[in-house]
Design brief:
Blueprint: E1 4-8, H1 13-29, E2 32-39, E3 44-49, E4 52-57, H2 58-73, E5 81-86, H3 89-99, E6 104-108, H4 115-119, H5 122-129, E7 133-137
InterPro entries: Rossmann-like_a/b/a_fold, Universal_stress_UspA, UspA
Organism: Nocardioides simplex
Pfam families: Usp
Length: 140
Amino acid sequence: MPELIVVGVDGNERAERAADTAARLAAATGAGLHVVCAYVRDQAAEISVADGTHEVSIARESADIAARVAGRLAEVVPGVTSSAVQGRPADVLLAEADRLDASLIVVGNRRMQGIARVLGSVPAAVAHHAPCDVYIVNTG
């Protein structure tokens, strides 16, 4: 039985499906759940709109995505945690699983079709290098 499950999200519907599956697994097994959103590099910009100027940051947006998903999943799994980490998605999932001593990584299969199978994908990289078990959700 997993003690802690790590799932990656990026704001798209398929990642949300993987997160939903991770929450169901956590609820069924009594495991904790950690939601992580990776971003390649932080960039900030100021945007002028009718009511003033707003600062936009990729790191902050990524943290907001992870927190939003964690908040939604907290209805199923109390105590869900979240983070946003700079790096490539597969590297971030692997590092967070290692840092948190996770027993399961849940990832969607959305990039495992066609040429991605030959060139590599997040699910393939995670499955190949994971420090724990990996559950690949059919999010197609």
